Amino acid sequence: MSETSILILGGYGNTGRLLADYLLQETEVRLVIAGRSIEKARGMAAHLNLKFPGQRVTGLSIDASDQAGLRAAFSQVDMVVVAASTSAFVRQVATAALDARVDYLDVQYSTHKMAVLQAMAPRIEAAGCCFITDGGFHPGLPAALIRYIAPYFDRLESARVGSVIKLDWSGLNLGQATLVEFISEFMDFQMLAFCDGRWQQTGLVSMLKPVTMDFGREFGRQYTVPMFLEEMRAIPKLVPGLRETGFYVGGFNWFTDWIVSPLLMLVKVVPDRSLRPLARLFRWSLNTFSRPPYGTMLKVEAHGQEDGQAKAINLTLYHPDGYVFTAVPVVATLLQLLDGSARKPGLHLQAHIVEPRRLMRDLARLGIEISGIKENTNDHATL
Questions:
Q1: pLDDT (tens digit, 9 = 90+) per residue, 199-217?
Q2: Class of domain 5-133
């Protein structure tokens, strides 16, 4: 692990800087902070070298659209972590990683990205590279949480995972590219839930009759709608006997949820240039109408059988900072990859490649508040 070098593409962004900080804290890796701005990359590298010993960080200017430049940069490291809004250039980035024979992990939600990587999967495995996609907390954790909770039942019959994300959006430094990418995916996600033995489309009906979940704390009961994540597709096969499952995402605020979001979902096909005004509208609604309490939570509502009796477990994961909640699961995954316990050639989803109990212990150790099941360091869990 001490000899490993990792390039973080977007390393001075909101998520990238946290990934760098945690990796330097938890490991002895060397880091390359990369992005289009050499000033920001070098500035972040200097900041991290002051904070952590060993002068382990350098800054590099790199453009995700420049495949030759990517290949040259990747050939100097062992792994690339994509923490930038560059899903439009996933083919260039992934191809450069393959050419350099390095491992890869991305922190992006993108149907386009997923399709490109799935088409490249045979090449990835043949090259002996380990590619991990859909990193973060959602996608990234929901399917892992179901894998984690299933052994606590003789038969797990129902497992819903819900999220609530309440942020002070006006205080966040979100780039235009990030917003446009977010909007394009928001307009395209599928409202699918698994019930009666198959994945079913709920569509706009789910907005008129939303599923509610009680998130406790200051959030209370919130309405949610199904949001299909690729990592959830295999869960019914991985957990025999499961009759109902799905990921459900909570709302932002009343104006964004009931006025802006339906508009975005109705406007499915727009020219690329039209995404910018839509992104501005979305940003304005978040900045104007979002109110405290702030925080980020995932909750699993699980029901099943144990010893012939009905059993229920409510498992919650919480952190006040959504970016920390994104970065920590990625770092916990990288710890398993770096020591070789999780590394295997091919294309993998973060939620499927991790060992769930170790993941939960590391999440708790790195500051994610977990309620419902507590993992102890002696590997015994308590409800």
A1: 998 765 556 677 889 998 8
A2: alpha beta
